[in-house]
Amino acid sequence: MKRIVVIGAGPAGMAAALEAARSGNEVIVLDKNSITGRKLRITGAGRGNLTNLNVTPNKYFSHHDAGFVRSVIGKMDSTAMVDYLHELGIFTWHTDDGWVYPVSNSAVNVAALFEARLIEAGVKLKLGTTVQDILWTPVSIRVITTQGEELQCSRLIIACGGKAYPELGSTGELFTVMERLGHKVWPIKPALAPVVTDMKSIHKLQGVRLDAVVSLWRKNEMVAETEGNIIFTHWGINGPGVMDVSHWVNEYLQDALFLQIDFLGKYTKDFLSFLKDQRNAKLGIGPLFGSVLPPKMVTFLLEQSGIPAGTQISQISDEKLDGLLSLARHLRIDIKDLKGFDQCQVSAGGISLAEVDPVTMHSKRLPGIYFAGEMLDVIGPCGGYNLHWAQATGILAGRGVTL
Ligand SMILES: Cc1cc2nc3c(=O)[nH]c(=O)nc-3n(C[C@H](O)[C@H](O)[C@H](O)COP(=O)(O)OP(=O)(O)OC[C@H]3O[C@@H](n4cnc5c(N)ncnc54)[C@H](O)[C@@H]3O)c2cc1C
């Protein structure tokens, strides 16, 4: 029987601990929080968006080539994840676009079930325990806590998250320890973060929420494009539609970056043909645009295009109508900054995948040490991709320690 210590009782650490314990090992989980899965409990606005039916390797971003992620997803795709969750007792449902939630719609219940399974498997939970150092030699691994305790183990799984939402426990101090022990760590930066923008032209859009196609531009080059819900605030734009491109903002923040937003998105074709049909009608342009856009957005677009509210479509010149449509499909908004760790959902960067075995999550540098979850240099978009990654790599690490 091996003694396995797991640092972190997040989704990655709990999945890892459960798998390791199922092979009859002594497993001890340490977490600085006094409850398990503190971050997990607030995910998906409390509903826990646990995976996504569209999980594929190309949805993820890393500084390494895609081979590592491909290997992980090849072993744990969304079907395998849903089956795994069902086996634990976490029944799931999914939205039309594939976002998977627990039937209870309660992330707290998910954490509670994980914890119950850990206790059932004989895992020892040492909560309220902060790890401050790891001492590694080829023949021993010792974990040092801030309480002065020293725990010896034959395998150590580090699943202590990134630096997003630090008040929930993940503050990134063990990245420094891993660097000291010789691991390459890619700089940790906010990702899935709201974008701070120039507000001059768009301040009237505050409070507008809608689905849109969002592209990120660096001079004349489109860096990334995504589709999702966006919310205009008093400082910029929030929501999955901008969060999914935000890690690129950090990569190029020194350049002049801007967002280009297409508010017609998937309705473009139908709406353009509808407008063509109505071109000579005695109908107000406002109500016509109101068929696909919220009222505040319609008012904004008309104002920006210099078209008085109440103008009939038949009275608008082709040039003016083209200008209005162009604005609705290509609104340019300059980016000033990105919100920080306290408002982002994950952090980009972390342990370089080049130094980790993609099958077992075993460190190639420090035999006996394994990694799982957000602390690896991988991020996914909004929609369950990050919990999928945490759980999948946790499962693989938990199995890896028993090999
Ligand atoms: C508001 C919010 C909503 C989100 N919603 C979703 C969602 O719906 N779907 C999705 O896929 N992703 C979501 N995410 C992202 C997701 O929560 C993370 O990707 C995931 O929790 C990472 O799991 P992890 O186990 O690697 O790390 P964490 O969940 O961060 O767990 C790491 C644990 O390690 C502990 N720890 C850290 N350092 C130490 C130390 N030195 N000593 C002891 N313990 C330590 C921490 O206390 C923490 O409990 C959301 C994130 C946020 C912030």
Write the layout of secondary structure elements.
Layout: E1 3-7, H1 11-22, E2 26-31, E3 51-52, H2 67-75, H3 78-88, E4 92-94, E5 99-102, H4 107-120, E6 124-127, E7 131-137, E8 140-145, E9 150-153, E10 155-158, H5 173-180, E11 185-191, E12 195-197, E13 209-218, E14 221-232, E15 236-238, H6 240-243, H7 246-251, E16 257-262, H8 268-277, H9 285-289, H10 295-305, H11 318-329, E17 331-338, E18 346-351, E19 369-371, H12 385-400
Parallel strand pairs: 1-2, 1-10, 2-6, 10-19
Antiparallel strand pairs: 3-5, 4-5, 7-8, 8-9, 11-18, 12-15, 12-17, 13-14, 13-16, 14-15, 16-17
Bound molecules: flavin-adenine dinucleotide.
Flavin-adenine dinucleotide binds at residues 7-13, 30-33, 38-40, 42-44, 49, 130-131, 159-161, 164-165, 169-170, 173-174, 345-346, 373-374, 384-387, 390.
List keywords for this structure.
403 residues, alpha+beta, FAD/NAD(P)-binding domain, 5-stranded parallel beta sheet, 29% helix, binds flavin-adenine dinucleotide
Structure explained in plain terms:
The chain is of the alpha+beta class and 403 residues long. It folds into two domains: 3-190 and 349-400, FAD/NAD(P)-binding domain; 194-339, no CATH class. Helices cover 29% and strands 26% of the residues. It contains twelve helices and 19 strands. The protein has helices spanning 11-22, 67-75, 78-88, 107-120, 173-180, 240-243, 246-251, 268-277, 285-289, 295-305, 318-329, 385-400, and strands at 3-7, 26-31, 51-52, 92-94, 99-102, 124-127, 131-137, 140-145, 150-153, 155-158, 185-191, 195-197, 209-218, 221-232, 236-238, 257-262, 331-338, 346-351, 369-371. The strands form five sheets. A six-stranded antiparallel beta barrel has the order 12-15-14-13-16-17. Strands 6-2-1-10-19 form a five-stranded parallel β-sheet, covered by helices on one side. The longest helix is centred in the last third of the chain and has 16 residues, at 385-400. The radius of gyration is 24 Å and the shape is elongated. The model has no long low-confidence stretch (mean pLDDT 97). Residues 7-13, 30-33, 38-40, 42-44, 49, 130-131, 159-161, 164-165, 169-170, 173-174, 345-346, 373-374, 384-387, 390 line the site of flavin-adenine dinucleotide (FAD).
